[in-house]
Amino acid sequence: MTLVVSPEVNTYSEVTLPKNTTEPTTDSNEVIVRGTDEYLEQPEQTKTYEQIVEEGVEAQYGEFKDWLNWRVKNELVAQIFHGLGQDNLQLNIGSVRDVIRKEMTSQRDHHFQSATHIDTTVVPLAKMRPEAQPDIPGYYWQKDVPNLEARSEIHLEVSERISQFAMLDETALYDLSEKYIRELNVEAQKEALTIAVQKIKDLEEQERKNKLEMVDLKSVAAVLAEQLKKAEAHIADRDIELHEYEMTTPSVASEQLAA
Fold this sequence. Notes:
mainly alpha, single chain, 2 strands, two-stranded antiparallel ribbon, elongated
């Protein structure tokens, strides 16, 4: 499941779309059903505008619910994992409630902004281009306006649906949080356990690598110690030789001077 992010949001300029995108088409057997440039093959009988909007709303709202489930479950997994080993672990319902409130608010605003952007920016630009030019990809044209308007209506209706939950009072939101916890707790526990088991395996593997590295380091240290010992012995021998040379040199010079 991926976050519902529409490509229309804050991505259009005077040329509407990036140059490397593919030009959307609105042939009779293709329609845009969600807030992405995704097309579904139509059956022989073309769907009505109302059907397109209805199916698009259900698809987008379904993705929102899936996303919210995923976010809540992640919160539960984090709480359970960090509380592993604690007796009678109590889940923080307040944190779950905050996640739900934040996601409802952000997704509601996202869909509303997407609808506004299509209506105020994308559609006006498309209406200014009467004839599609295949050699200019990434543009919307007049023929795309019905699909763009459908997409805008989908975003707006999804935003309104989410708003009904976003306006819940604290008691209702608390009850909704408890409902999510009941439904997702077991699955979250399984995921937390999976993470714990994987971390154990990772630590065991790291310990094995550390032992091998330690063996290598001990071997290197032994070689370095032997080399250092030889170097120190060499320096000691050289110092002795130098001292003996310094002791004998003056007497030799005196004998030469006397002669």
